[in-house]
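Hello Y.,

Per our agreement to keep a running log of every chain we model this quarter, I'm adding this entry. I've kept the format consistent with earlier entries: sequence first, then predicted structure.
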Amino acid sequence: MIFLQWLGGAPSGGEAAKKTSLQSRLCKYNSRIMDWIITTLNWYVVLFALGIIVFPLTRIFFHQFFDRGYPFAKTIAILALSYIAFILGIYKLLPFTQTSLILIIAVFVIGYVYFKRARLPRLTFNKDFFIFLFEEMLFIASLFFLAYIRGQEPSIRGLEKFMDYGFMKSILRSRFFPPLDMWFSGNNPINYYYFGHLTGAVLIKLTDIPSAMGYNLILATIFAQSITIVFSLVGNIIYLFYKSLRHAIFGGLLGTLIVNLAGNLHTIYLFTSGYTPDKPIPFWQILSKYNPTKYWYPNATRFIPFTIHEFPSYSYVVADLHGHVFDIPFVLLIIAILFLMFVNQSQANIQNNKSQITNHKSISNFKFLISNSILVGFLAAIHYMTNAFDGPIYILLAGLLFLAMFGISRRLFLSGGIMILSFLLFSFPFSSHFSPFVSGIGVNCSPDFLVKIAKLGPFLFEKGNCQPDPLWMLFVLWGFFWVSFLLFFIVKYIQQKRKEHSSPLHVAIDDFIFICFVFGTILIFIPEFFYIKDIYPAHFRANTMFKLGYQAFMIMGIASAYTFFRIALLTRLPRFVLSCIFVFFFSFIFIYPFYSFPSYYGTLKKTPELNGIKWLETTFAEDKEIIDFLNDKVTGQPIILEAQGDSYTDFARISANTGLPTVAGWWVHEWLWRGSANVVGSRIPDIVALYESKDVDKTAGLIGKYNIKYIVVSRMERDKYKNLFEEKFAKLADKIFTSSSGFGALYQVKTTRP
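Predicted structure for the entry above:
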C-alpha cells in the first residue's frame, strides 16, 4: 500500500480490487517466466559441463577443424555416457541411477587426468576463445528458442508422444536393461530401437528435472546440438577449402538453416489456391492465387499419397521424440567423421602416388584405417539402436566412401570387414533382445511373372503393390537439392574449362560433396523400386520413403550449403547468375518455418510452460491425480490394469505417464512390434472381462494370469466399459486412492483373498 500511495495514492473500492488482481496476475506471470528460465538454465549447465569434460577427447578427433570440433563435444559426451550406462545395465554390472552416471563421469575424468598422454592442439586465446564463445552462444540461443516454442504448447499428447514418453518413463524406472514394454506386460522388453530414448533418460537422471519438463528440454537440446554441429561441419568444410573464417561462418549459418529449419519446394502451393491433399496436381496446373491461409504445413510431409517424407524442421514443430529425431546429432557426427576420414585418406592416396611410402608411414596408415573403421562401425551400431534404418544407411555410405578411397583392393575389404564386425559387436547387446519387425524387401510394381513366384529369398513380389511417383512430385520434394547438385556440376565444369588446378585437399572435398549428392539421390529413388515390408497394407512403402528421405535431406542439405560457397568463388557474371538461381529456390524452402511454427503453436505470445502433463489437469483431472500418486508412491514396475484402446488416442495414458506396464496398450503399435495382431489382440477380451464380468472368481483368475497389482477405474474405463462392475474389486483389492472428485479410483490387489 505504501508503494501504491507513492505512485499517487492508494485506490479504494473496485479500483483497489482491480489493481490487486492485476498484481496477482503479474506475480504469477513473473513466477512462470522465472521457473522456465531457471529450469532451462539448470538443464543447460549440465550439458555445458558434459561438453567441457569431453572436449579434450573431441579435440583429438577434430584437430583439423578451426573450432577443434567444440560443438560435437556435448553429443559425444551424451552418446558415450549413455552407451556405457547401457552396457553396464544390460550385463547387470551397475544399476541405472543418477549415482551410477556420476560415477561413470568421475571415472572418466580421473582416468583422463591420470593417463593423459595425447598431445593436444594448442589453443590460442584470441582466435579459439571467441570461436568457442560464438558457438556456445549459438547453442544457448537455439536451446532457449525451442524451449520457448515448446513452452507455448508443451503437452505430451497426440501423434507418437505417448509412446516416446512411455519408453522414457519405463527406462527411468529400470534398474537394469532391457527396459520393459509399458504396453505389453509380462516381463516383455521393449521391442523397438530405444537407445535415443535412453539418452533422453540419461539427461533427465543427471539433471534431476521432472521428466514431464525434461521431454520438452530434450527436444530443445537436440535442436541446439543440430544447429551448432551443422554450423561447425559446414563451416569447417568451407574453411579447409578457403581458409577464410568469414566465409566459414557464413557458410555454416547457411548450412544450419537448410538442414534444421528449411522445408521443401512444396511451399510453392502457398502462392496458389491450394489442392486436395489426396489428389495433388502439378503446381503449374493451379491458377495462381495468393492465399496463405490455405497453406497447411503437414502437407509438405504427405504430398505423395500413401507415403511419408518428413524432414527435421517438421520434426521440431510436432515434437515427437521418435528415433529419427534422437538420431539427428549422431547422424551429423558420423558424417563429420566420414568427411575427415575421406579427406585425409584421399590426400594420402594422391601424395603416395607421387612419392615412395616408408615402412613407418605404412604402419601409421594401417593404424588410421583400423581405428577409423572401428569408430564408424561403432557409430553405425548407435544408429541401428536409435533408428534401425540409419544403421544400414550409413554402413552403405561408408562403404561407398571406402570404395572411392581404396578402389577394389585389400584395404577396401579390410576396412569394410572391420566396420561390419564392429557394428555387429557394438550392437549385439541390443540386437540380442531385439526382433526386427520386417518381413522382407518388397519390389514396387512387380511384373506378373514375378508375382506368381511371390517370394525369392528376402525379396517379395506382391500383387497390387504398385505406387510409382511422377518425377514432378519428386521434384517438389527434392528439387532444391537437385538444383544445387546441377549448380555444383556447373561450377566444376567452369573450373575445369578455366584449367584451374586444385590442391589434393580441394579435390578430396569436392569428391566428398559429389558422393553426398549421389548417395542422397540414390536414397530418394530406392522407394521407387523397393520397400521394406511391414504391417501397413495401403502405406506399404511409407516407412521406407520416410527413413531414407529423412537422411537424404540432411546429407544433401550439407552438400547444398557447400555448393553456394563454391558459387561464391566464381567470377562476377557466373557468380551472379548461379547465385540468383540458388537464392530463388532457397527462398521457397526457407518460407516453411514461418508458417509451420505459428500453425502449430499459435501467436507465440503465451507465457512459456515446460510441464508436458499439465494438460491432464483440465482434461483428465482424475487421471492426473492417479498418475501423480503412482509416480510418487510406487517403485519398480508392477503391472497395472487400465482401459485399452486404439493407437493415437488418449488410451493407455496411465502406463505412458508412469512407465508401469499395463496388460495391453496401443494395439497397432504392439502389432507392429510383436509381428502379430493376435499377440496383443488376444488380451483385449480379457481386459473387457476384468472390468465387466460379475464373476469374482473369473476376475481373480485373470488378475493372477497377468500378475496385476494395481487396477485403475477412472473416466476412460467408465466410458469404455459400459457394463463396468466395480463392486467386485472391493473383494479382490484395497482402494488405496480416490481422486478429489471421487470419480477416479486406484485399487491395490490383495496378496491373499479372504
